[in-house]
Amino acid sequence: MRKPRATAATSGPDGLASAGDVAAIVAGTHGDPFAVLGVQDAGKGLVARCFVPHAEFVTAYTLTGKKAGELSRRDDGGFFEGKLSIKKRQPLRYHARNATGDWWLTDPYSFGPVLGPMDDYYIAEGSHLRLFDKLGAHVIEHEGASGVHFAVWAPNARRVSVVGDFNDWDGRRHSMRDRRDTGIWEVFIPDIGAGRPYKYEIIGPDGVRLPLKADPFAFKSELRPATASVVAVPPAHPWGDDAHRNFWRNADPRREAISIYEVHAGSWQLRDDGTFLSWDELADRLIPYVVETGFTHIEFMPISEHPYDPSWGYQTTGLYAPSARFGDPDGFARFVDGAHRAGVGVILDWVPAHFPVDEHGLAHFDGTALYEHADPRKGFHPDWNTAIYNFGRREVVSFLVNNALFWAEKYHVDGLRVDAVASMLYLDYSRKAGEWIPNEKGGRENLEAVSFLQKMNKEVYGHHPGVMTIAEESTSWPKVSAPVHEGGLGFGFKWNMGFMHDTLEYFSKEPIFRKHHHNDLTFGLVYAFSENFVLPLSHDEVVHGKGTLLSKMAGDDWQKFATLRAYYGFMWGYPGKKLLFMGQEFAQRREWSEARALDWDLLDFRPHRGVRQVVRDLNYLYRSRPALHARDCEPEGFSWLIVDDSANSVFAWLRSAPGGNPVAVISNFTPVPREDYRVPLPRAGKWREIINTDASEYGGSGKGNGGVVEARAEGGGTSATMLLPPLSTIMLEFVPE
User: How many CA atoms lie within 13 A of 663 on its CB side?
Assistant: First the structure.
């Protein structure tokens, strides 16, 4: 419920403001300063009123420099008022003086509003899809002056002011205009431009001044530990990525090779002095590395502004601002463009699942539960001690949907990977009985979150074809990656958490025991095509005492390396898109920490170089062979060749797709070479070995089949007899005559 505010008293017969208005302006408690300050009617003429602390004399001028009147000081706090010689309302400049000097300022209260009735209509309806062009801080020309327009949603506030170094952080100086129908507050502040730090000073409905708030729509922020927003112009980068974007606009990503390199921008590499690389330095190093290693996409853990490094960006306070850790926002635009020109896509981790309760952030933004639920059973996240967005509020949904559109439009990102979707979908997520509120039907599903995710996906895919969304969803919620019109959530892809869990569990077992866990690797094919899956070996598997992928493999050091190479071969041959966290492509030994760079010196050692070479070669094969990617999401592209040889821990299957030769994938997950092993194959003739993870160049034993096997038709079937190297995956491609 909106609180009543003080309004301007009627001016006296002499045109002077009432004593109550003057006192309220000086105290910063007036509910409608635009009704008092600026140019106001007074009988048949006009008066000007201004609040200029420290001034002793003020003279009014038009923007063209014509003198318009002398103003008298009504209050020693800095309230001035006087009749004007001009005949029509127009913006004014003031020449202020005191005993120590003089200065000029342009009166923000002499300007009309920037937002219009159509903005009010669409904002109130929750259907405005360009909020980022209206809210936040925008450098504009307005009524003959240049300056910055500020706008922020705070419907329950008594007063909202912009504060910064341009007004000595004094909330009385630039109180904003309340657009009461929408709860949006706005003010145009002339004579300032980009680069100025600012925050909002908000008086809550109870009259209490809140801690200064950063702008929810800030496009740039100060470097932590400072938390102010910074006025920024939109990225002015001259994009040169039309070829990349046109390709993906016209592609079906389910049928394209997608191999994702997951990166934490703050710890992939560091400068020699331990500081972060800038976006330009990352572009010079990371993009060529990704191209050379064969990945198709870089996925960044959240790069939007966040105060706390160990949150890895997942507790973001500035959804619209690339973090100042890596330089200015234009630097990120240059990075994305550089990646696109090199043929590499950029995916961002996006976090609508929760937000931190830092006092400068969104929590209790206007003194009420505005972005979050008031009831902690819906508005507080027990796992992360964070707030939860109120997905039932149209303004909150609009804020988040606009943010997804913002990254796609302004920074040309290729996709959004949505974090912790399961925590959004279930009202009882991480909650005990009595700690959650059922939905209107009595169930545990968060129907408001479902509606939000569907709307976000519809708008992203509708406005930005070629951009994909990926859900990190860890349950069996149906149709995560099905279209909304078919009852799905509308994501393009879903992380296959079952694949990650089952395979890591299997490879942690000593080889002698793997025969008892054969089903861990075969079960996944029961549901492999129920969604459009990404196979994720992400940062979550190499932190918090979990070790690294290399350390998870059973056996001695040689066996660990051999098993990891074989595991990657198995994964790249398995249906689904691929994702690998940085450092795992060269078998990082130390668990990942955001506080240090990866151990790049490991590449001086042959086993680590061998793992990286395997990943590079697998990426090349995956991208160059339609059989390995073009039916990743369709059962027609997969068939078992050997599914039940648990005694030998051998698995074999066939990948196929129109326009490509079939590829057989065969894994032996024991350290015992299997000689004269018979593998059924669909066609007689030569099958060329296109990769063998046991090859000596990778650090393996070098056992193999001389590069080719011959399949023969015998006894009603076709098969080839071959050597299966120890702890290996081999791929055989049919060679037509």
Answer: 30
Helix/strand/coil percentages in the chain, nearest 5: 30, 25, 45
Are residues 689 and 737 in contact, defined by beta-carbon separation less than 8 angstroms? Answer: no
* DSSP of 316-382: -SEEEEE-GGG--HHHHHHHHHHHHHTT-EEEEEE--S-B---TTSSTTTTSS-SSB-SSHHHHEET
Neighbouring residues of 250: CB distance < 8 A, sequence distance ≥ 6: 466
Where does residue 168 rank: exposed (0-12), middle (13-18), buried (19+ CB within 10 A)? exposed
**Non-local CB neighbours of 395 within 8 Å, separated by 6+ positions:** 123, 126, 153, 183
Peptide bond connecting 225 to the previous residue in cis, omega within 30 degrees of 0: yes
- Cα separation, 282 vs 285, whole angstroms: 5
Assigned token pair, 689: 């070995």
> φ and ψ at 207, to 5 degrees?
85, 5
CB 317 within 8 A of CB 358: yes
What's the DSSP call for residue 600?
Answer: G
pLDDT band at 11 (very low <50, low <70, confident <90, very high): low
Catalytic annotation present for 358: no
Cβ contacts of 385 within 8 Å, gap of 6 or more: 357
Residue 502 CA: distances (Å) to CA of 88, 419, 506, 537, 691:
76, 21, 6, 12, 24
Does the pTM surpass 0.70? The reply is yes
Q: Both tokens of residue 208?
A: 């209490």
Task: Give the pLDDT confidence of 550-568 residue by residue, as tens digits.
Answer: 999 999 999 999 999 999 9
The question of whether 419 is a catalytic residue gets the answer yes
Active-site residue, selected from the candidate residues 472, 473, 632, 733? 472
Which tokens is 476 given?
């069996």
In the predicted model, is pLDDT for residue 10 greater than 50?
A: no
SS (H, E, C) 613-642: HHHHHHHHHHHHCHHHHCCCCCHHHEEEEE
Average pLDDT over residues 196-221: 97
8 Å CB contact between 479 and 485? no
Give the β-pairing of 259-263 and 184-190. Answer: unpaired
Q: Which of 262, 330, 414, 419 is catalytic?
A: 419
Structure tokens at 385: 């001690």
Let me know: does 653 contact 627? Beta carbons within 8 Å. no
Q: Which helix (H) or strand (E) holds 718?
A: strand 717-724
* Count of all residues that appear for the chain in the document: 737
Q: Which residues contact 274 (CB under 8 A, 6 or more apart)?
A: none
Q: H/E element holding 570?
A: helix 557-573
Question: Is residue 681 within 8 Å of 712, Cβ to Cβ?
Answer: no
Nearest 5°: CA angle at 356, between 219 and 216? 25
Decide if 340 contacts 245 (C-beta within 8 A): yes
pLDDT tens-digit map of 278-299: 999 999 999 999 999 999 999 9
Please give the single-letter amino acid code of residue 448.
Answer: E
